[in-house]
Write a structure and sequence with these properties.
The complex is a heterodimer of chains A (about 140) and B (about 290). By secondary structure, chain A is mainly α. Chain A folds into two domains: about 1-35; about 40-120. Helices cover about 75% and strands about 0% of the residues of chain A. The two termini of chain A are about 30 Å apart. Chain B has about 290 residues and is of the alpha/beta class. Chain B has nine helices and twelve strands. Chain B has helices at about 10, 40-45, 70-80, 120-135, 155-170, 175-185, 190-195, 225-240, 255-275; strands spanning about 1-5, 15-20, 50-55, 85-90, 95-100, 105-110, 140, 170-175, 200-210, 210-215, 215-220, 245-250. In chain B, the strands form four sheets. A six-stranded parallel β-sheet of chain B has the order 1-12-9-8-7-4. A two-stranded antiparallel ribbon of chain B has the order 2-3. The longest helix of chain B is centred in the C-terminal third of the chain and has 18 residues, at about 255-275. Chain B is globular and about 50 Å long. The two termini of chain B are about 20 Å apart. The chains are: A mainly alpha (about 140), B alpha/beta (about 290). Chain A: InterPro entries: SCO6045-like_C. Chain A: It comes from Streptomyces olivoverticillatus. Chain A: It holds the Pfam family SCO6045_C.
Chain lengths: ~140, ~290
């Protein structure tokens, strides 16, 4: 297979996958031919998984929001796709709640948590990891 | 046979990788090299001679883009640090968008099935070759569980996997719970998939618990293993003796004796179906 053929295959696949994923996490209309029930189940499963991982990555958020966590996370995440990994997603979620809640104690605790997060950006490990990271930054 | 858990201690430093611990017969011995970013509990397992297999979840080799070199390098470093006999990933895509679509990149946050088309297979094979060139040990890929069926599918699951193996030499990590999931959710008969698989490519086997709701199977890794999943394992073992079987459990851990009973049930299926003996690993949580 030629490089051109493969590049064309990548492009077709990219469009097909993006149409499906956009329907699952970004509120786009579903591509033709997919079973509605399957789409709904997959959409729910992705949202549940995302909430579950955020609760693990940022247990403090789970604690601060208590029983409201699932409802607030759904409200935040529906139609708002994750773009830069779970840590960023957790931070964006916290800021979303901060912008929408009037609960003073909750606001105070979220503000402290968010400030602490921005102080502790994890470093890339290993020489190769740092080189790759630098190359990627240069390329983008 | 062994028991796998997500290594929570390592999750922060290296997102996108979990570790399957595996105690089994017939695996290459490991060697330990010092490296940062390897959690002490995992190294303790290595010191006891337990093969540890890094199990990637975020490479998205079934995605349209070439695999992320930074993630591949991290996986390669980890495999070396743990003296892993192999590394595993999934036949899935985990995000979309970016330059190929002229739209912002978005993440699924989980594993999504790829269309079983010629295009997807060509791209997957190329991505696997890129990964194989960078990884220090063999790669094996796992079939995923799905709720969705791509309307564009041109090949059966078995045909897709068989051609993938033939073109790349990649190993297969056969997840029998995922075969069961796709039976319930997509009407794909596990026996048919197994009939079409190149059995000699099987690196090892995953078993996991889940639950059924509204006619759909949820592969939760947080519920007991059910009989239908064990039946698929029996189907597999009737065709070949797998090099190892691993129970996946990520959450809601039961008491040790309940877990031991699950492992015994798995062991019983393997023993009944195959003439060879498979040693049983003692369940142990990585903390």
């Amino acid at each position: 297979m030629s490089d051109d053929d493969l590049a064309a295959a990548r492009e077709r696949l990219a469009l097909a996958q993006h149409a499906l994923l956009s329907a699952l996490v970004a509120g786009s209309p579903p591509p033709e031919g997919f079973d509605r029930r399957g789409l709904a189940a997959q959409r729910r499963a992705l949202l549940t998984k995302r909430a579950h991982v955020i609760a693990k990555v940022a247990p403090e958020l789970r604690e601060i929001l208590g029983a409201d966590f699932p409802r607030l996370f759904r409200a935040y995440a529906q139609g708002r796709p994750m773009a830069e990994g779970y840590r960023r997603d957790a931070a964006d979620f916290a800021h979303h709640v901060l912008a929408t809640t009037r609960d003073a104690e909750r606001r105070q605790r979220l503000t402290v948590w968010a400030a602490r997060q921005s102080d502790s950006t994890p470093e890339k490990h290993g020489l190769l990891g740092r080189v790759m990271s630098a190359l990627k930054k240069k390329g983008s | 046979m062994g028991y796998g858990v997500r290594a929570s201690a390592g999750a922060r430093k290296s997102p996108g990788t979990s570790h399957a611990r595996k105690a089994s017969t017939g695996w290459r011995s490991w060697r330990r090299t010092s490296a940062p970013d390897t959690s002490p509990p995992l190294l303790r397992l290595c010191e006891r001679g337990t093969p540890v297999v890094p199990h990637g979840v975020s490479l998205g080799l079934g995605g349209a883009d070439r695999p992320d070199l930074g993630k591949l390098v991290a996986l390669a470093e980890r495999a070396e640090a743990l003296g892993a006999p192999l590394v595993t990933e999934h036949i899935a895509f985990v995000g979309s968008g970016g330059p190929l679509t002229a739209s912002p990149r978005i993440e699924a946050g989980h594993l999504l099935p790829v269309p079983r088309t010629r295009d997807a297979l060509d791209v997957l094979c190329e991505n696997v070759r890129i990964a194989q060139q960078l990884l220090p040990v063999p790669l094996a890929l796992e079939n995923v569980a799905a709720f969705l069926t791509w309307p564009e599918n041109e090949l059966s699951e078995g045909q897709f996997l068989a051609e993938l193996v033939e073109r790349t030499g990649v190993g297969l990590l056969v997840d029998v719970a995922n075969l069961h999931t796709n039976h319930v959710n997509r009407g794909e008969d596990p026996a048919t998939v197994l009939d079409e698989l190149p059995l000699e490519a099987i690196a090892y086997v995953h078993v996991a618990g889940g639950f059924e709701r509204d006619g759909l199977w949820h592969d939760s890794h947080a519920h007991p293993v059910t009989r239908p999943v064990l039946d698929v394992l029996a189907e597999l073992c009737a065709r070949t003796t797998p090099p190892g079987v691993l129970l996946e459990r990520d959450d809601d851990f039961p008491e040790a004796d309940e877990l031991a009973a699950e492992l015994q049930a798995i062991q019983a299926v393997v023993t009944r179906a195959s003439a060879k003996d498979v040693r049983t690993g003692v369940p142990q949580r990585v903390r």
